[in-house]
Amino acid sequence: MNVINTIAPLKSVNNMKVDTSMLQTVNCIPAKSRAVKYIVLHYTGNQKDTAKSNARYFQTGGRGASAHYFVDDSSIYQSVALKNKAWHCGTKGEYYHACRNADSIGIEMCCSGGYQVSKKTQENAAYLTAELCKLIGITAAEVDKYVIRHYDVTHKKCPAQWVADSKEYNEFKEMVKYILKHGTMEKKGEEMIENSKVIFDGKEVPVRRILKDGTNFIAVRDVGKIFNCEVSAKGSIPVLKSK
Ligand SMILES: [Zn+2]
Question: Ligand 1 centre and the CA of 202: distance in Å?
Fold first, then answer.
């Protein structure tokens, strides 16, 4: 948790400009500074919209809601100064989490069609989240605790697709952690190969693997070792023959 007293410390994220031309103070509670612990992810819940159209909409007072950032497939707009409290996860009723508007940053992901947040928008939001983690002192090990869904705070179904199935939310958090550790997602494919093991009939066999979306991809040569097979190739197709 760090004390934030700045308006717009991020000028760009992953080579994408953070547009601050529509910052507003009419749908938030201005403050000199505030201690920030959480980053809360939302979706706009519109059929299809853009970061720019949302930033413009919230420039008019009386909206009764707001968020610090709006993200779409190709742009990021900041709407509320980070030192100010936005109205993105408040509730009159019971809180399901320690998080409040006062100690959190709200990010709205826009919908690319059919009330869905695209993979690209989620990736852009992951880069933004990683930069904000650095700013407020959230380490990769703390992402699971402090990078949360609106749903986790109030049980509102937001972002709906992350509530219906938490797979994409988990992937999002893994992206944020990866960016925090490596600065980028670009080399992810190459760097994901790791030395691991498989247990076959109670015996450990070392293997090279890629773990992706909960599935293990094991090198064929190592699969051969597990089942005591000779491994050769017919063109690019592996051939396994039991010894
Ligand atoms: Zn929300």
Answer: 47
